[in-house]
Predict the structure.
Amino acid sequence: MRRWIFGDQLGPHYLDEPGQPALLVESRAVLGRRRFHRQKAHLVLSAIRHRAAELGDQAIFRQTATYGEALEEPVTVTQPTSFSADGFVRRHPMVAEVLPDRGYATSREEFATWADGRGKRRLLLEDFYRENRRRHEVLMDGVDPAGGTWNLDAENRQPPPRGVSTLDLPGPWWPEEDEIDAAVRADLDRWEAAGEMEFVGDDGPRWAPATRTEALSALHHFVRHRLPTFGPYEDAMLAGDPWMAHSALSPAMNLGLLHPIEIVRAAEEAYRAGHAPLASTEGFVRQVLGWREYVWALYWRLGPDYRKRNALQARRKIPDWFRDLDADKTVEARCLSTVLGGLRERGWVHHIPRLMVLGNYGLQRGLSPAELVEWFHLSFVDGYDWVMLANVIGMSQWADGGIMATKPYSAGGAYIDRMSDFCGDCRYDPKKRLGPDACPFTAGYWGFLDRNAEHFAGNHRMAQPLAGLRRLSDVDAVVAQEKERGTNAP
Ligand code: SF4
């Protein structure tokens, strides 16, 4: 039977055998409903059209307004990656069978078995990650972790080297656009001009892989040239080096062009061959086989209502300058303007600007977590509902009240100053919490704590920050100042 392949199921593993008939659908309604980053719309359409071209006569490729219009014969489909698409295929009379997912290392059943087996213990990422390493025999020496230790965070996650503006590495692998990209660009321009769609962010040369061949090139380039430096600087930020040593493979992974197991095996091979240190390799495997799989599994486990959680009653609307990635004219805080500007330029910034600049801003200013989930989903080339839900609701916004994290990811300017080169040229001072040059993150941190002091009163990990708040002599003035600043562009 023909296999309907969704736009994030584009790798060969989504077909049962090489010649299987396939159906690919490009739905304009999906792009017209919401304001995606221009480069994300481009990447997704380019990847679908490239796959259709590769499959040739083997595939029917329909460009329709909606998915429903495209289904004219019975099909099978691999479980889609969102609650809404999952519900759609299960209700549709032309879908004969929904097959279990095949693009991740953890099935729903495997995660349920692990989670149920823990009784009342928290679903700790660290435990899940170790279980996945054992189950898939990744970086293992028999029953022991390679090198005798599971977690090399102490060696990783260092500040950037001093006095440099880049890590001076070969950049990530970069594709060459072709005639399919040209056609995508022309279509997007036309649809936008006709008012059928609206985008955020800059158009730009496509930098993320759109085909399996491109994705493999990007993987091998990363493992060879960048993996060795990944670990130490995975959390560091430099204004002049947005990629640092990150793989930038998440868009290809999330399009289904690469399987996570082949990625971690490639990284492990480099380590075994002596081309990459263990700490970097472990840090990278932790991101792919640990964190990414964890948020994927939690998406299904926590259910669609998880997005409604709002433990801190954060209800502010996302301000226009933030939503529009309008950083240059309006934002003076250098960390925020650099990160928002980078997002506008590329549709991507790495995990620490996401969590500790953008997410931290949302948490401190009380932005609506549900709005932020949607914003991250639309604004990032690798954003999908399943990726962003747990990352935003659980991790960055504390909206689930502590199911995922043990303390909120709020930090003042001192953290950003330590982990980046942003603060030196900023008009604010990361050490100041009061006055015209008070850092909006430092002052915002105290404002956030003051606003939520009651909520965190019983959390022993927050005892020290709350004691610090009580010792501040000028807390009332700082809180008043930050109320006044609100969500005006800092
Ligand atoms: Fe950001 Fe504050 Fe540093 Fe400026 S001083 S870059 S606002 S953390």
Summary: The CA atoms of residues 301 and 458 lie 27 Å apart. Residues 333-335, 413, 416-417, 422-423, 426, 428-430, 439-441 surround iron/sulfur cluster (CB under 6 Å). The first strand starts at residue 2 and ends at 5. The chain has 22 helices and seven strands.
